[in-house]
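We treat protein structure as text, and this decision shapes the records that our systems exchange. Because each token names a local backbone shape, the row as a whole describes the fold. An entry from our holdings is shown next, in its original layout:
>
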Amino acid sequence: MSDQPIDGITAVTVAGAETAPGPAEGAATLGLGASVPPADAAAKTTGVYPYTADLWAEGLLWAAVLRAPHPRARIRGIDTTEAAALPGVRAVVTHLDVKGAPPGDRPPLASAEVRYHGEPVAAVAADHPETARLAAAAIAVDYEVLEPVTDPEKVFESEPLHPDGNIVRHIPLRYGNPDMNGEIVVEGVYRVGRQDPAPIGAEAGLAVPRPDGGVEVYTGTTDPHGDRDRLAACLALEPEQVKIYVTGVPGAFGDREDLGFELPLALLAIRTGSPVKLAATREESFLGHPHRHPTMLRYWHHADREGKLVKVEAQLLMDAGAYADGSAEALAAAVSFAAGPYRVPNAVVDGWAVRTNNPPSGHLRGEGALQVCAAYEGQMDKLAARLGLDPAEVRARNVMGTGDPLPTGQAVTCPAPVAALLRAVRETPLPPPPDEEWVLPGGPDGAADPGAVRRGVGYALGMVHMLGAEGTDEVSTATVKVEGSVATVLCAAVDTGQGFATLARQIVQDVLGVEEVHVAPVDTDQPPAGPGLRGRHTWVSGGAVERAAKMVRTQLLQPLASTFGMSPELLTITDGKITSYDGVLSTTVAEALEGKELWATAQCRPHPTEPLNAAGQGDAFVGLAFAAVRAVVDVDVELGSVRVVEMAIAQDVGRVLNPAQLRARIEAGVTQGVGTALMEHLRVARGVVRRPDFADYALPTALDVPDIRIVELLEERDVVAPFGAKAAGAAPVVVSPAAVAAAVRAATGRPVNRLPIRPQSAVVNAGAQPQPQP
């Protein structure tokens, strides 16, 4: 390991970091379809990968942020005198130092009012981290504490909590004949709690002042250009005066969105003229970043006596927290997918995203889609019970296919093999009953009585959208350079752990036959690639890399083809060799590249979408991905404890680009879904986050992860997507919680209408019988 100073910054690097174990004998080793190991695998597994918290600079100062202790209060004054007078304190900043305004409705530092517990109010830079924390605590803020509004149902009658009002967005979707009713009607009310993204690494950043009055920020962001533009707006600087360097991202399941973290760093660096570093505690991380939208959902499913859906009615209420952030987009997904991957001729859906004095909600895998999946799958179980049918059979009678419309009126033109996915998990053999008591609910030290344990099997189908929606201009730019036999990819797509850097290497290997491919570090001097959300980098950034690589390929092959009087299209590159269709030309890529430097830049922009209209209609989505999950659980019906035995998943992936990486993504998504179903819940009482730490916020451990069986990866390529591949990480997260809830229903006969599932929801009174098993 060596320390390498770069522009005054010390980055930890690892010699041989791109070395990894080879694949099994006979397997493809390079290009698309091969299980190419991540370049950073060795560094991450040995603990020497350079995250932001590892960076250091000469003359470094440390920052601390003062966060509001109240969920709602008026700020009557801020006195920084005592804090500024402490030895070692170099600067204190408040909203008065923010010269501009960022886009959106959230102030980077609270000014007249704080609207949620933990909102940033002021920040301090000092020569020692403990001095900075003491100084932040010494800032005297005169609060007039106000009564918080934390119940989303009450905001419609309450006074405005924000200058923009209490309703972020209302979508009234109307499809087909709203007056049509079915012979059978089932009703349900469902609730999904507040889930934290819980990244393994808390937020950290380093800001360095520039001679031109600007600033450079080193941070583990997923959207560097968006951060740059927001920071520049707040600092009243030109975007060119703010540069973002992306360092190692220690976990991200959406955006790492917290301008109240990055702005104080930039302000303090400019004010002091020194590098300033901030490493958040776990408590600050919980308070600072957005969470999954807590949602209340009321449903009415209408069907005929054969179980065919006639109409779906729903009312969705999403808690946006104090600020809008990504709530309008999450609501659009929730309303559009409110009926699930089923054929529904009529729909009446009203969705609201509202402001409260709860912690802000934002982007988290499958936002909107996860909440409605838990509800509509609960409804399908109720419908099956009412009709006396197998829950999987009711689903099979209603699944959508390619060409069917969504309730938004948009036709599903991409592959939608929902029936095949359901059939795959239905036909998979069930796991055997437990043969040892230690595997019963509660683990090795559990108190489960074998006689009180019931097994349940549940099914769930779900869908997610890929890329942005409702007119978002999705575009990414990439440059591919080849010099000698080494290729370099420049693209501002951040690899957050989803494997984009590995995919980019595979694409270039596949197109150019060059084995050694490097992906350059990301900064905002590169053209924008957009945020790392909804599988967009596989699509738009991967597509841009492929187009650039193909342009370089033409540059490489054109002279060779001209020499033999043929078209470049008649030449192929396989295993590092260039050959013509007739075998006359045969040479290696290395020989053809000798002494040459080739490069090309390309963009990828998918087909445009449109906003939903006043009736919730419109072609709002670029593409969709589907999954089916069968969950098997054991439930101690006396204690209410649940053990997930097995999760069988079949997923619509379009095309497998990296088998090992894809399976890892799916397994991780299922595990996160199990956490959503059983344990992950950020407790908030009257707007105050209770115990924001991992002692109280439970995450799945190795003992909680079930046997995950990927029974089918259905490769039906989406013709409009580069490589035909679909997003892989979000669909398992969306569908798994609903499947676990369905299995617990089957085991207990209880409604199970809340996520995470509370023990009391799985307790069965003496004499009660579970629902019939499929």
Remarks:
- The chain has 15 helices and 32 strands.
- Residues 536-563 form the longest helix (28 residues).
